[in-house]
Amino acid sequence: MTVAISCGEPAGIGPEVAAKAWAALKDEVPLLWIGDPRHLPEGTPWQAVDGPEDAATVSPCALPVLARDFGSLATPGIANPAHAAGVIEAIEAGVALAQAGRASAICTAPIHKKALADGAGFAYPGHTEFLAALGGVDQVVMMLASSLLRVVPATIHIALTDVPEALTAALLTDTILITHAALRRDFGIDRPRIAVAGLNPHAGEGGRMGHEEIEMMAPVLDALRAEGIEIFGPLPADTMFHPAARARYDAAVCAYHDQALIPIKTLDFDGGVNVTLGLPFVRTSPDHGTAFDIAGKGIANPASMIAAIRMAARMADARAKA
């Protein structure tokens, strides 16, 4: 079934990597791009369609496009707040197609949050929170995934000094439960193995370097083990990501943003995929931003978008079989 791609910020590399991904995957994954076709790279062959059902009838030599009129062309590298409403509507349209079962998944190109706020009063911190609202769920989890590693930061875009207070037993429990359910439903892993990184160096070293592991994390993990979840930790983060360690688990839950993202970006910078767990539909995204500095130059690497589309298709297939 078709994967819908929302256009993202037209002045960034989203349209370019989407067009390149379509060229690479057109014989592998049915795709539908949602946006203003004037923002696609010059020379991109495309054909307007009314929905995913029509995409199958399009010539394999043309990108199926659910066309939207954003009112003007985009200037590479310079976000235009006048395009904000169109960008938001493209996301909403992709989600609506996925929720209606007309698309198998949505893959979102990067947005520019300031342009959305300036142009349309976009009040969400980012894509993830907006998608949660559209999906009608209170809590979702961000996973970064590749063929080499899956990581989940329990706390995300907050200052490091705020992490100890934000990392509560309730948050850690919910993060692990959502991750466990998604590994089963979306990745087809019958009995997921989850490793949990400690907050402090050496996972606190028995209380010598912090007490969070003893006082909060270990009781949470013990309770989850009692429910039948195969879980390891709290573990020293500095020994969790070498090859032998990674072979022992299916996903690593980490305490904070960089603890999770540094290892995956080191191991597979171009192949990492941003996945939102806990939604009633499948959503993936390339693990990069708008890259204004190279937009319009034709040099953007589509590897992460290609990986995101492939992962969306695999997840949708696993969810359909669950």
Give a nutshell description of this structure:
The protein is an alpha/beta fold and 322 residues long. The protein has helices at residues 14-25, 52-55, 84-99, 113-120, 127-135, 163-166, 169-185, 212-226, 243-246, 257-267, 303-321, and strands spanning 3-6, 31-35, 46-48, 63-67, 105-108, 141-145, 150-153, 193-197, 230-235, 251-254, 273-277, 283-286.
How would you explain this protein's 3D organization?
It is a single chain. The protein has 322 residues and is α/β, with parallel strands linked by helices. It folds into 2 domains: 1-138 and 280-322, 3-Layer(aba) Sandwich (Isopropylmalate Dehydrogenase); 148-267, Isopropylmalate Dehydrogenase (3-Layer(aba) Sandwich). It has helices spanning 14-25, 52-55, 84-99, 113-120, 127-135, 163-166, 169-185, 212-226, 243-246, 257-267, 303-321; strands at 3-6, 31-35, 46-48, 63-67, 105-108, 141-145, 150-153, 193-197, 230-235, 251-254, 273-277, 283-286. A 12-stranded mixed β-sheet has the order 3-4-2-1-5-12-11-6-7-10-8-9, with helices on both faces. The protein is globular and about 60 Å long.
